[in-house]
Amino acid sequence: MSEAVPGPAGERTPVDVAVGVLIERDAAGREGRFLLTSRPEGKVYAGYWEFPGGKLEAGESVEAALARELHEELGVTIDTAQVERWQELVMDYPHARVRLHFCKVFGWSGEFEMREQQAMAWQTLPTEVVPVLPGTVPVLQWLAAEREFAGATHRGD
Ligand SMILES: Nc1nc2c([nH]c(=O)n2[C@H]2C[C@H](O)[C@@H](COP(=O)(O)OP(=O)(O)OP(=O)(O)O)O2)c(=O)[nH]1
Q1: Residue 128, φ and ψ in degrees, nearest 5
Q2: Contact between residue 137 and residue 51 where contact means Cβ atoms under 8 Å apart
Q3: Cys bridge to 76: 65, 108, 114, 154, which one at CB 3.0-4.6 A?
Q4: What share of the chain is helix, strand, coil (3-state, %, to 5)?
Q5: Distances (CA, A) of 91 to 134, 135, 148
Q6: Which residues have a Cβ under 8 Å from the Cβ of 28 and sit 6 or more positions away?
Q7: Residue 28 belongs to a domain
Q8: What pLDDT score was predicted for residue 72?
Q9: Complex ipTM value
């Protein structure tokens, strides 16, 4: 997709972004730890923690973009049969307006390899890593609601 450009009314067309919430499940299917990664040096919000993903290319589906991005960034191959579209959110940043397509991912193969020198951390609520990207906070809140977790979802603000 192209960069955000001002629309007729001055608003910017959102850039579509596929985001993967990789979640471990136990034998009973209960959801446990989820994966956060830090944004690499050289990108906006470098060092902020987020769920891994990236922008859709022209003509690409959310699932295809997710598979491509996670392979490029983390070295793993996701099982698209175990991807569930979950939530959508439009965020307005100074640098761009983005439509985030959050998907739960329950199956992947291969070894994690941080190909962009980012860091990874398996987390539960409340998350330990700081700071988290603004567009990541709502996801933590959705997870908290699902898990009936009360209290702060993450540290700092
Ligand atoms: N990956 C990811 N991006 C998020 C999240 N929340 C959020 O607001 N964003 C925003 C940050 C960025 O503006 C945009 C993702 O773009 P990006 O720059 O990481 O994507 P990309 O890897 O395709 O980047 P590039 O090739 O253009 O450098 O979405 C999130 O949880 N995960």
Answers
A1: -100, -30
A2: no
A3: 108
A4: 20, 35, 45
A5: 9, 7, 25
A6: none
A7: yes
A8: 97
A9: 0.90
Q: In the numeric block, which tokens belong to residue 27?
A: 């034998």
Residue 17 Cα to ligand 1 middle (Å): 7
Q: Give the pLDDT score at 1.
A: 46
The alpha-carbon radius of gyration of the chain (Å, integer) is: 15
* Residue 36 included in any domain: yes
Give residue ranges with CB within 6 A of ligand 1. Answer: 17, 19, 43, 50-55, 91, 93, 96, 98, 100, 133, 135-136
- Range of the structural domain that residue 93 is part of: 15-147
> Mutate which of 49, 55, 103, 140 to test ligand 1's pocket (most atoms within 8 Å of Cβ)?
55
- The answer to whether residue 111 sits within a structural domain is yes
The whole-number mean pLDDT for each consecutive block of 10 residues of the chain, a chain of 157 residues, reads 55 94 97 97 94 97 98 97 97 94 98 94 98 95 97 88
Contact 1, 15 (CB under 8 A): yes
CA dihedral (79, 36, 72, 94) positive or negative: positive
- In this structure, what CATH number is given to the domain that contains residue 142? 3.90.79.10
